[in-house]
Each structure stands twice: as C-alpha cells, then as structure tokens.
C-alpha cells in the first residue's frame, strides 16, 4: 500500500471518529489533539494490548486510582501536533488511557458485597422486630389466655389486655369465658317400646369458671365441653328415652325432659369437672318420630281438637245457663234484699212503736206509782191518825154511843159472840 493511500484511509478514520477529551489541568480552550494510529501497527500490537489489560485487572483496588497509572504503550507512531495534518516522521509520547473494564469489575464487586451485607443486616433487624412483635399479644374482652410452654400447659391465666410471653417457647390460646350458646348435632335415641327418635337443634348455654379452666384443660383438653356437656346431654337423653315410651317422650313427659337432663348434666359436671362449667339454660325441642306414628298423633290431635270444640260448645251452653241462673239468682237476691229491707223497715217501725209503748207504760207506771204512793201515804197517815185517835177508851165510847141507839140486844150469855164482844168492850 502506498503512502498516499494510507494517508487517505487515516483521514477517513479521523473524520468519522470522535476526538479524545483533553487531559490538560489548565482548562485552556486548545483544539483537541488527535492520535493517529497506523493500521498495520494496530494489527501487530493487538496481543500485547490484551496482555497488559489483563495485568491491570489483577491489581488491587486500594493501590490503584480510578484511572490506571500504567501507560498504554505500543510501537505505534503517533503524531501529537498542532498542525492540521498529521506527521508520520515523529514519535509522540503515548497517552495514559483509563482501564474502564477493570474499574467496573472492581467497583461492581465491592458494591455487591455492600448490598449483601446490607441485606443480611436488614433481615436480622426484621427478624428481631418480628420476634418482639410475636412475643407481645393481646387478649380480647370476654376471653382469657392460657399458655403452653414446650407443649405443656402452664398454670398462668391472663385477663383482657396486652401481655408478653417468651417467643418460640410459649404458645397462647384464647378461651371465651362469657356465656356461650352451642347447638348440638342431631341425636338419635330409642324408646322403651323400640321407636327411634331424633332430637335436633338442642341448644345449651354454658359459662366457664376461670379458676377451674386449667384443671379442665389438663384433664379433657381445650375442647372439654364435648366431654363434660355435649356427650353428657346425649347420654342423658338416651337414658330418658330408654326408660320411657314414645308417647311419654313425645307427649306426656316431654316437659320433664329438660329439667331431668339438665340436673343430671350438672351433677356430672360437678363429679367429673369439679364444677368448672355452669349450665345456664338448656333447650330441647320435640323429637322427630316416624312418619306413621306422627300421622296417628296428628289424627289424635284432630279428634282432640274436635273434642275441644264440642267441649267448648258445652262450656258455652253451660255458661249461658249459668248466666241465666245468675240473672235469676240476681233477681231473687234483689227481691230478697228488697223484702229484707221492707221487713227491716217494719221491724224498725214496730220496735219504734214498742219503744213508744214502753215509754208510755213507764210514764203511766210512774204516774200510778206516784198515785199509789200518794194514797199509801194518805192511808198511812190516816192509820197513824186512827192509831192515835182510836184508843180503847174512844172505841168504848163510840160503841157505847152506837149501842145506846139500840134499845134491845139479844144474846145468850157470855159465850155468844155478842156477849163476848160486850164483855171485851165493857170489861165486865
């Protein structure tokens, strides 16, 4: 290749390539200097450049600055001139080029290590924070907390609020202590006469005693209600049905089922669970019986309803008769009351007349007594006067006067009445 053709190729490469930035520290506005490189010498020094670049990569980052301090040298003739056209007869000092690939590899490795350490630190912080959060727990109102340490239940019971527990070693479970309603699954039982009944929607309201909670969980687990309440209700219903006929279970003794089952369940809880559960209410609906028996009961109820209608009609008629009787009795009572009032008026009138008569009699008696007293007083006074007047001498005198008026007296001696009288008067 001739020198003219080589210069033409270099000029083309210069026109299509970007100039290198100036490394002058003075910051002047000089024109960019172009490094002219011979194509033939570039091909001959390619292996040498690769070897030097590999050496730069092996150097430690702490002993090398951002830009490589080793020159990128070759035997390429360069022209570093202020002239517009390059000069091939001079050798210029080679420029120091930065090892960009090595720098990126070194910086990328350190950044990866920093990211890895930061990730580990973040994981540790998040783990510690998670442990703290997992150890703090809250118990809701109406519940208490029971604790298991390595699977064994602890005697500690906590009440509503925020509490702390040992992480990874202690587990907490909330137990409801307010009254709770449970609906039991359908229960089948057989009566004494071999009829199967099915009790559905049996509901029981229970309440847990906190002081007995740990004891019941130790003996029966957290589902202690199944053993102490639900299973006992099933058992008592089966016992009751086994001792009764279907008519007694469905009709005559149905109202006695709840009281008997509830009392027996309470006794079982006291015996097995130390009274740790309170049975507040028990609801047992009527059982489902076979369809044919239910149809017979329905017919009986229809007849019973007709009897109730007839009985009600009888009661209505009886009530009507009783109403009429009550009216008649009321009229009689009214007439009797009127008659009694009339009689009472008459009695009062007669009693008034009697009282008036008695008063008149008393007045008359008093008057007559007064007159008698006056007459008596008069006679008494006259007698006293006569006693004073009629002395023996006065009597004899008046007798003599009376006898003097008669000229003749006939008597037969002293033994006769007249003779005796004269003898007494005259004293002879």
Order of helices and strands: HHHHEEEEEEEEEHHHHEHHH
Percentage of residues in helical conformation: 55-70%
Strand content: 5-15%
DSSP strand count: 10
- Total helices: the number is 11
Write down the overall mean pLDDT: 76
3D shape: elongated
Give the helix/strand class: alpha+beta
Q: For the report, how would you describe the main beta sheet?
A: 3 strands, antiparallel
Radius of gyration: 75 Å
Reading side by side through the largest sheet, how are the strands ordered?
A: 3-2-5
Cα distance spanning the termini? 248 Å
- Give the low-confidence spans: 17-44, 56-92
Topology (elements, then pairings):
Layout: H1 3-16, H2 39-44, H3 46-57, H4 100-135, E1 136-139, E2 143-149, E3 152-158, E4 161-164, E5 170-176, E6 180-183, E7 187-190, E8 196-199, E9 203-208, H5 213-220, H6 224-242, H7 246-252, H8 254-272, E10 277-283, H9 291-389, H10 392-404, H11 417-426
Antiparallel strand pairs: 1-4, 2-3, 2-5, 6-9, 7-8, 9-10
Helix pairs in contact: 6-8
Explain what you see.
The protein is about 55% helix and about 15% strand. The protein starts with a helix and ends with a helix. α6 (about 225-240) crosses α8. It has about 425 residues and is α+β, with helices and mostly antiparallel strands. The protein has a three-stranded antiparallel beta sheet with strand order 3-2-5, with helices on one face. Strands 6-9-10 form a three-stranded antiparallel beta sheet, covered by helices on one side. The chain has eleven helices and ten strands. It has helices at about 5-15, 40-45, 45-55, 100-135, 215-220, 225-240, 245-250, 255-270, 290-390, 390-405, 415-425, and strands at about 135-140, 145-150, 150-160, 160-165, 170-175, 180-185, 185-190, 195-200, 205-210, 275-285.
């Amino acid at each position: 290749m001739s020198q003219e053709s080589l210069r033409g190729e270099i000029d083309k490469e210069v026109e299509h390539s970007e100039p290198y930035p100036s490394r002058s520290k003075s910051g002047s506005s000089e024109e960019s200097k172009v490094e002219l490189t011979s194509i033939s010498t570039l091909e001959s020094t390619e292996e040498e450049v690769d070897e030097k670049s590999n050496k730069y990569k092996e150097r430690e980052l702490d002993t090398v600055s951002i830009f490589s301090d080793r020159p990128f040298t070759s035997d390429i003739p360069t022209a570093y001139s202020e002239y517009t056209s390059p000069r091939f007869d001079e050798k210029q000092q080679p420029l120091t080029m930065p090892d960009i690939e090595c720098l990126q590899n070194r910086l990328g490795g350190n950044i990866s290590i920093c990211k890895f350490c930061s990730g580990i630190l973040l994981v540790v912080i998040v783990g510690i924070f998670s442990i703290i959060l997992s150890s703090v727990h809250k118990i809701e109102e109406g519940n208490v907390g029971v604790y298991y340490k390595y699977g064994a239940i602890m005697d500690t019971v906590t009440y509503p609020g925020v509490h702390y527990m040992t992480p990874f070693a202690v587990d907490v479970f909330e137990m409801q202590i307010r009254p709770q309603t449970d609906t039991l699954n359908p229960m089948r039982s057989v009566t004494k006469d071999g009829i199967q009944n099915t009790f559905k929607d049996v509901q029981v309201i229970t309440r847990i005693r906190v002081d007995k909670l740990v004891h019941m969980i130790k003996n029966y687990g957290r589902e202690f209600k199944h053993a102490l309440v639900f299973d006992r209700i099933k058992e008592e219903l089966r016992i009751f049905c086994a001792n009764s006929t279907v008519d007694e279970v469905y009709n005559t003794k149905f109202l006695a089922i709840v009281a008997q089952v509830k009392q027996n369940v309470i006794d079982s809880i006291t015996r097995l669970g130390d009274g740790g559960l309170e049975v507040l209410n028990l609801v047992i609906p009527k059982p489902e019986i076979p369809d044919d028996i239910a149809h017979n009961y329905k017919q009986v109820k229809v007849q019973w309803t007709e009897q109730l209608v007839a009985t009600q009609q009888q009661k209505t008629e009886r009530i009507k008769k009783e109403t009429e009787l009550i009216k008649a009795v009321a009229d009689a009572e009214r007439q009797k009351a009127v008659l009694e009032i009339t009689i009472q008026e008459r009695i009062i009138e007669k009693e008034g007349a009697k009282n008036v008569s008695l008063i008149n009699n008393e007045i008359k008696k008093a008057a007559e007594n007064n007159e008698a007293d006056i007459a008596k007083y008069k006679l008494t006074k006259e007698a006293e006067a006569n006693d004073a007047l009629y002395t023996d001498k006065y009597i004899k005198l008046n007798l003599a006067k009376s006898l003097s008026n008669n000229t003749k007296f006939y008597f037969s001696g002293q033994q006769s009445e007249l003779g005796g009288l004269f003898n007494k008067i005259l004293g002879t």
